[in-house]
Amino acid sequence: MSVEEQIDRMRRRQSGSMKDKRRSLQLPASPAPDPSARPAYKVVRRHRSIHEVDISNLEAALRAEEPGGQAYETPREEIARLRKMELEPQHYDVDISKELSTPDKVLIPERYIDLEPDTPLSPEELQEKQKKVERIKTLIAKSSMQNVVPIGEGDLVDVPQDSESQLQEQEKRIEISCALATEASRRGRMLSVQCATPSPPTSPASPAPPANPLSSESPRGADSSHAMRV
């Protein structure tokens, strides 16, 4: 049933109740009106607009006509529900289990820094690693000794430098450290590849020639003669 039909039904009920009231208000001893005489007044019925219709009466009528006595949703509740769905429907059905769960692991295909292997290193690998450490220490010592000059007999004094030269020196040290790290990583990768590949059989090493005792004694004699001259 549409709203217009419901409004028409309410109007008919109101008009019927008005007729009953008029009949009850009529005097019983009043003379019967002459049908031939025209009345001096005219009854004007005022029709209510849609906005003036009592919504409570309309809701009560709809609830009475609802079959099975089911719960009827009022227009106000229906409007609120529709507005709620139209504004932000996605925020009312949100699954936060995915947001609260632990994130997926990110696969890193390549690392810039090689991690230490779990297996112990062989003696050759340990020797190569020690050589790298000694080489790095030597380069760092050489770069640090560039700022020191000897004065007198073994006295070392720092040379004062301006800010630009210090900045250049720091940049040079940073470049050297980066180059050393890159070289160490490259050598480590080459060494790991060499260890992984099978090496060909090596020939027995030839015995070292015996040392000449005269050659070892000659520098000692030179040192003693030099000491005598002094």
From TrEMBL:
Domain of life where this protein originates: Eukaryota
Biased segments, Pro residues type: 198-212
Region (Disordered): 1-40, 187-230
Biased composition (Basic residues): 10-24
Protein name: Pleckstrin homology domain-containing family A member 6
UniProt organism field: Physeter macrocephalus
